[in-house]
Amino acid sequence: MIDLHYWPTPNGHKITIFLEEAGLVYRIVPVDIGKGEQFRPEFLAISPNNRMPAIVDDAPADGGAPLPVFESGAILLYLAEKVGRFLPQETRGRVAVLEWLFWQIGGLGPMAGQNHHFRNYAPEKIPYAIDRYVNETNRLYGVLDRRLDGRDFLAGDYSIADMAAYPWIVPYAAQGQNLDEFPHLKRWFEAIGARPAVIRAYARAEELRRPSASGFTEAERKILFGQTSATLRRES
Length: 236
Fold this sequence. Notes:
Glutathione-S-Trfase_C_sf; Glutaredoxin; alpha+beta; Glutathione-S-Trfase_C-like; Glutathione S-transferase Yfyf (Class Pi), Chain A, domain 2; 8% strand; Thiol:disulfide oxidoreductase; four-stranded mixed sheet
């Protein structure tokens, strides 16, 4: 059994997609980030960066005590190595998957995240910031589109690189992007979204999704967007 500490965000979706694809038995432990549950001491013991997702594997390969893993990229690598799937063993294939996994972690995720914030959540609309991150997201979509020209997936066979990137494309409209401008990306996006495991993963998200599409309350905004080191000390 794997406990998945989770909330329905793009990084959270990465892990439910993997778990569904691999057919692993898991239990979702909700971490409501709007209520500040990511600051609970029991969660910080698993994820010291006070971010979800995180997992606890009750049956690690070394046969030892339950193993906690935090950070979505590290979780994907850990799980791929655990099950021996979605990450090639041969050197060149493995390198290609890791390149695109880290590209998502270091580029697409952070830039799209800032795009979401300044475009949709910031109390003050700052045109420079909006343009900066919408344009950078657009550039990264272009990188994906070029990579997928003539390829079914980002790095050979379907892999953790695809699982990492897909959830960050799902909210493309909220990022100010038009998939029709990126035909290779659009074809890949639609193919990933039609996979039964991906459909099941997003169905799990609906169990926790907020009923309102209006975003966060003012109190939740303060929790999510006003964090400092003092926040961590106070909550823990």
